[in-house]
């Protein structure tokens, strides 16, 4: 998985269709709140660049941003299983939050890419 250098000018795209994108970390430094609430489909789930590769509950952002335990947005009862090592962003009862899931199913991803001027 490639990660964009911090010097890139970025635009945001949520899709499974674009293959040449960098997996993003959904944290407050990158994403304005209205991007999540207004742009994402509440019926879909999105990989968000947070995972637990070893199954030890040592969560890691793909861009190496330190994981802050006090600034998390887990849904109630989550994380729920050490076998679920990837994190998705999804809406439950119209409230967005995090859910740990197996990494295998195809889900949408929140990605970032270089801004292109036309």
From TrEMBL:
Query: SUPFAM superfamilies attached here?
Result: C-type lectin-like
Q: Which InterPro entries match?
A: C-type_lectin-like, C-type_lectin-like/link_sf, C-type_lectin/snaclec_domain, C-type_lectin_CS, CTDL_fold
Which organism is the protein's source? Pteropus alecto
Q: What name does the UniProt record give this protein?
A: C-type lectin domain family 4 member A
Q: Which Gene3D superfamilies match?
A: Mannose-Binding Protein A, subunit A
* Keyword ATP-binding applies: no
Write one Gene Ontology MF term: carbohydrate binding
Q: Which UniProt keywords apply?
A: Disulfide bond, Lectin
Any idea where the C-type lectin domain is?
A: 24-112
Q: Name one Pfam family in it.
A: Lectin_C
Q: Which PROSITE patterns match?
A: C_TYPE_LECTIN_1 (PS00615), C_TYPE_LECTIN_2 (PS50041)
């Amino acid at each position: 998985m490639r990660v964009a250098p911090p010097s890139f000018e970025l635009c945001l795209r949520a899709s499974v269709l674009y293959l040449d994108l960098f997996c993003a970390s959904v944290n407050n430094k990158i994403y304005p709140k209205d991007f999540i609430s207004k742009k994402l489909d509440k019926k879909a789930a999105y990989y968000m660049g947070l995972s637990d590769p070893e199954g030890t509950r040592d969560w890691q952002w793909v861009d190496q941003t330190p994981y802050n335990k006090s600034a998390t947005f887990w849904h109630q009862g989550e994380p729920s299983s050490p076998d679920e090592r990837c994190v998705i962003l999804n809406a439950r009862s119209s409230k967005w939050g995090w859910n740990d899931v197996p990494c295998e199913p195809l889900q949408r991803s929140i990605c970032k890419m270089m801004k292109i001027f036309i």
